[in-house]
């Protein structure tokens, strides 16, 4: 495969022998020096570190050198030599330089001084050129790859569940409508309602909030599947934890009961975090230094501890007896807030916690009902700093129980007859969970705002780029 | 990781020693036999082959055995023994059987006899339980994994470009609108137009037709990126080649010129097809036997031949001089149809072809203009049977040329100022291409209809499940 006529800076810094004639291409981070020598810090995104280019000013045209400013893209051909003081093993003694594209210092928004995260969000189309977003995007890639590798190595099949859906049965949140009708002139039927027979799909359709229901169809045929795709919430929530468009991973496994599901979740999360520690060392060190001094320690905390398994009912008891002051109330039947989850993990157990057997009223209709008539076989995995990172359950595989629950909750059967049918024919015990990819990345990168772990965040009033 | 209390049938058939006590779980494909012995063919999706379960009828309860019909889900514990006549190395002598879920023979739609592809599309929620769709979905998984592995191993970063977009600049096709407005009561401004200030994003938004423009932003920061995500077309095309929702792979590489781009495309496609031949042997053999006798030969044809590189102008000349009868006209300036592409590949060169330097009028605005003023540095990769499988180009990196072309085509600058800006600051030569994932799967599986290579197809008037 072509390298585009260059050696990557990662390779130059790590393994190319000093003395080699090399070509590097990349973007100028800084240029400094004096009238005799200039030092250019060049980055190509292959690694967080820059390579230093040493330029004998007297050998180059003034006009060329003037065009080499922060943000410019250049080619440098020269000799890789051992470095005296660049902080790296090697640097390049420039022999020839070409400017592919300059960057006018009066207009280029990314000058060398630090910018606020808010400002960088406004120029999200340029922020991948910063150290911070380079690091975040490399880690994002590494985590996505590790997810595929984990499941592939274990015989799971990646199932592409649909994005556009005619069913809104899951009720996980407000949905975006997808339409080809002209909103300036919506066709109406004789009763004055929208005439969906003229819409593309012939009925109202939305963007999915979860691939789980279709994932179960896959698991009840192929045994082990996972989804990894975009999901959507049309909730008007302007918070550091909410996105309108985000990515989700949802494994679903036939013949799994809740215990198996917990084992999978713990093994999976530890694998991912170990993968980050092993493969993203430079980027994690940068983020630890710049943003979150406890980041690497927190990652190790997860890898090195067994996850506590605890009944919801026990968890509530611990919280009520803790004497701690919480903003939100604690009592049996209420959902836990992040502050409660973090108390259990950070203060009480000092380990990640898997909380199970939640009250059925606060969980989804498809969860398997326990014999007590009050709780379901739900599980939430709770982490330090962020609280819930995974939510899952054993699914109700009994046709009559599931159908009764659907009726109790007023979900129209016409929307999910196909889902119910899987319990009519060849039903089996099965379980699964959902991991929000950006939630994982908040944990792994230590970033504080979910808008800073996705390339182009979609939030209320914002769909730029 | 838990195996859910069973050994996968793939492992039982391939590597578990005869004589072992084993548990298998799966779905009954067939049951036959006589009053003394029953033979159950059991499948769990881990492999296309069934394992045979031999049941001594006299040792089991009649009522239990009656519930074991096609489609039922069962657990079998017993001894793995060498097989006499099942066509497999081993079979299971049943010691204990549990029925997880029966499948009423009067209602279960997937009886053992063959079903038409049309019928299976109507029950897409059940078709993963058939041999054909099991094979297709396993190959789909293998190809998705191979794509991620190929790019990861070569230092590309997986970039998640947005699905919801406020820009419709690419013009690759009709778009779906995404909205939270109430279509029964669309808010209007004082001039009677839709008041988008009340919509979720505060402006009209659509589902993306391509991640390329955002992909270029990534490449001009990280050097090598790829996208792999859903894309959408709201075209009212009811054909075996069109889906409203499909998946696309779009690598984009800084410092690549057209030659590098061609080399990447050829290497990438050969890698994927070799991966299928190496990893999906049983499924490919099944599809070759059942649907497309030339399938495996066609895959080998691609792997074993160098791709011809040819100017569009040369291609047109060959077609005009061929004496062949085509349905659609051939002349310089017209786009090629599938019949023309296939003629070049199958009849003339007998090799895959990369056609380059197309007339600029039939290609997108962002392609790099050649010095002749007439053509652009486009490339289409043409395959046997399906014609174009990849479309790509070197991108125009010159700010003024790109801006002029945008103006000529009447694209509003307000929609893509951010894209143009990448050519203002640190621009660089760069190239990329798009591979439709389902187009690839049509080629690799030999299926004739694109609705049969995606789990839940979305087409005009159809968004079921």
From TrEMBL, chains A, B:
InterPro entries: Aa-tRNA-synt_II (IPR004364), aa-tRNA-synth_II (IPR006195), aa-tRNA-synth_II/BPL/LPL (IPR045864), Asn-tRNA-ligase (IPR004522), Asp/Asn-tRNA-synth_IIb (IPR002312), NA-bd_OB-fold (IPR012340), NA-bd_OB_tRNA (IPR004365)
Aminoacyl-transfer RNA synthetases class-II family profile domain location: 137-455
Localization in the cell: Cytoplasm
Family that this chain belongs to: Belongs to the class-II aminoacyl-tRNA synthetase family.
Signal peptide stretch: none
One Pfam family hit: tRNA-synt_2
Oligomeric and partner information: Homodimer.
UniProt cross-references to NCBIfam families, sorted A to Z: asnS, PRK03932.1
GO molecular function list: asparagine-tRNA ligase activity; ATP binding; nucleic acid binding
Origin: domain of life: Bacteria
SUPFAM superfamilies per UniProt: Class II aaRS and biotin synthetases (SSF55681), Nucleic acid-binding proteins (SSF50249)
Name used for this protein in its record: Asparagine--tRNA ligase
EC number(s) recorded for this UniProt protein: 6.1.1.22
Catalysed reactions listed for this entry: tRNA(Asn) + L-asparagine + ATP = L-asparaginyl-tRNA(Asn) + AMP + diphosphate + H(+)
Keyword presence, Zinc-finger: no
Keywords per UniProt: Aminoacyl-tRNA synthetase, ATP-binding, Cytoplasm, Ligase, Nucleotide-binding, Protein biosynthesis
Tagged with keyword Aminoacyl-tRNA synthetase: yes
Protein source organism: Alistipes indistinctus YIT 12060
Cellular component, GO annotation: cytoplasm
One example of a Gene Ontology biological process annotation: asparaginyl-tRNA aminoacylation
